[in-house]
């Protein structure tokens, strides 16, 4: 029974993470801004050259590549530039990891409480089958309660992710 509850939570969390990755984190990789000042020449709609902020050229990886193209920069400056290009993504990953750890900790505390209640019932002389049912019921309630937290947690993370790099 506990395995089934664990699977329910795991599938819901996996789905949430996949959604965040597709809808938010991938977009950060596509639209990452180059953190250094400057402009590049781009062709306008009429074919004329125009100055454009470097971040409009797109990809986080292009940002990193442009760091490497700076022949005047030292190795350390290039490395720092690349780190700045990847900083929003690292911040996003850290945010998701932190929220998932908090969620997991809360769920673990709840199930630990169920285990403590079961142990107390055994110590008080309750029958094993009755305690097992009580434990399963308690764990199921923990999972149900925490499954209801996932949409709010997802919304909060999406809001936080959308503000990263702005």
From TrEMBL:
Pfam families assigned: DUF842
GO terms for cellular component: cytoplasm
Stretches for region Disordered: 26-53
Membership in a protein family: Belongs to the FAM136 family.
Name listed for the protein in its UniProt record: Protein FAM136A
């Amino acid at each position: 029974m506990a395995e089934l509850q664990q699977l329910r939570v795991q599938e819901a969390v996996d789905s949430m993470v996949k959604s965040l990755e597709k809808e938010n984190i991938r977009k950060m990789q596509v639209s990452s801004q180059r953190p250094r000042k400057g402009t590049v020449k781009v062709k306008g709609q009429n074919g004329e050259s125009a100055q454009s902020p470097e971040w409009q050229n797109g990809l986080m990886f292009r940002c990193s590549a442009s760091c490497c193209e700076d022949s005047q920069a030292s190795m350390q400056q290039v490395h720092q530039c690349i780190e700045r290009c990847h900083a929003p993504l690292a911040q996003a990953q850290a945010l998701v990891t932190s929220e998932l750890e908090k969620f997991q900790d809360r769920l673990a505390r709840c199930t630990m409480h169920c285990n403590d209640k079961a142990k107390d019932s055994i110590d008080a002389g309750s029958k094993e089958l009755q305690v097992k049912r009580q434990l399963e019921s308690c764990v199921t309630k923990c999972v149900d309660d925490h499954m209801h937290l996932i949409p709010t947690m997802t919304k909060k993370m999406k809001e936080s992710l959308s503000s990263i790099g702005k």
